[in-house]
Amino acid sequence: MLNPDGVYLGNYRCSLMGFDLNRHWLDPSPWAHPTLHGVKQLIVQMYNDPKTSLEFYIDIHAHSTMMNGFMYGNIFEDEERFQRQAIFPKLLCQNAEDFSYSSTSFNRDAVKAGTGRRFLGGLLDHTSYCYTLEVSFYSYIIGGTTAAVPYTEEAYMKLGRNVARTFLDYYRLNPMVEKVAIPMPRLRKEKPPPYKYPLLRGSASNYPNGKGDKKSSVNHRDPSNSF
């Protein structure tokens, strides 16, 4: 929970000071965006710790216009990395009836450059996956039906449990289901980055941009048909 003061007052986007915190990841201020600043320092510290494997970052938000749960992911010029990040949302779609893979998209829109998903997708290496999990304020439609089912507190909690279950499936740790092959593409050897980026306070120029940021904004619904 990175916006406790804003949420306490009924805001779902802005902090108490009026900032949309999910647009200030590039250079958060310890005074104006203290929760962002602290979490960013923690993530970079974990990333630089050789004993820590930072594999997933999932930013959870409510959505005011769309239905169901769905995800936003990043776009990479490395096609295999781009395909691999589709595995988790596809597994989640199998576990959660209210999660829509058809609404899941992968983009690098300029307006989203300051989000946690975009910033960390450019900072972390090819072994890490960064997503935004969006869930409707209102309702969801189960596949094959047309009736909208209102979200309840229990339904939101159930989706959270299904996210946890998807991690068990992803790492093949779920003892309740028969072991099935997760659709993993063949990977070619990738060179690791020559060094990890130190914890620096300052402008966004201290951190690398994602490989794909040189091109104009594009949007992909499904990175491949191989899964």
UniProtKB/TrEMBL annotation:
GO MF annotations in UniProt: metallocarboxypeptidase activity; zinc ion binding
GO biological process assignments: proteolysis
Source organism superkingdom: Eukaryota
Domain (Peptidase M14): residue spans on this chain: 1-171
Required cofactor(s): Zn(2+)
Region called Disordered, residue ranges: 190-227
Signal peptide from the UniProt entry: none
Active site: E134
Biased composition (Basic and acidic residues): 211-227
Record family assignment: Belongs to the peptidase M14 family.
Annotated PANTHER family: CYTOSOLIC CARBOXYPEPTIDASE (PTHR12756), CYTOSOLIC CARBOXYPEPTIDASE 6 (PTHR12756:SF9)
Protein name: Peptidase M14 domain-containing protein
Species: Equus caballus
